[in-house]
Amino acid sequence: MSDFSTARQKMVDGQVRPSDVTDVRIIDAMLTVPREAFVPESKRALAYLDLDLDVSEAGEAKRFLIKPVVIARLLQAAEIRDSDRVLVVGCASGYAAAVVAKLAGRVTATESDGTLAATAGDVLAELGLGNVTVRNAAAAEGDEASAPYDVIVLAGATEIIPNRLYRQLADGGRLVGVFAMSRPQRAMIVTHSHADFGDRVLFNAAVPILPGLERPAAFVF
Question: Measured between alpha carbons, how far is 48 from 12 in angstroms, rounded to an integer?
Fold first, then answer.
């Protein structure tokens, strides 16, 4: 077993399973997807640690792969079926989209950083994940051309209500992500039913804010 395979197993056994992630499809996906492939070579030794991993290039805006356990718990709450159409918002270099691709029928992933979007597309293609399309788009925009979605996953936190994303949910659809309007930040699930939206707190979590979903700057006199 390679060092990365061992680290992947330890990530699942030491981080994911103890956090009440019991969906075997998610566990199998996280044991299969090589997280190190989505990380700059200089940081691959950190790929399986319990942290938000910076995958941005030097001098660029910070972009992160959020903690593996947070993604795992969000995906378990979303209850993704193998026929679902899923939107992953803020996919960075593509790891969350790769895991979702193992669970869903069709995945659209958006990333506001054009270089990272291209990287994500290349790595996903190299892994043979042909059911994923990566779009270079702002987080708040989603991808209306491929809507509606059964599930929308925020691969980062939002400080605003992402109303445009809500409108891209199918009836019966679910949006999962970390909402940072207050402290502590909370992972939540938002459900769409008959033109109405309901929400429920899942767990406390703190992850980096997605660019484009920040709270507007307050005007100072």
Answer: 9
Query: What tens digit of pLDDT does each residue of 14-43 get?
Result: 999 999 999 999 999 999 999 999 999 999
| Yes or no: domain 3-204 corresponds to CATH 3.40.50.970 | no
Alpha-carbon distance of 91 to 100, in angstroms, equals: 11
The count of residues in the chain is 221
Average pLDDT score over residue span 154-183: 96
Say which amino acid occupies 134: V
Long-range CB pairs of 39-47, under 8 A, 24+ apart, other chains included: 39/65, 39/93, 44/4, 47/4, 47/7
Could you report the per-residue pLDDT of 89-101, keeping only the tens digit for each?
999 999 999 999 9
Domain boundaries along the sequence of the chain: 3-204
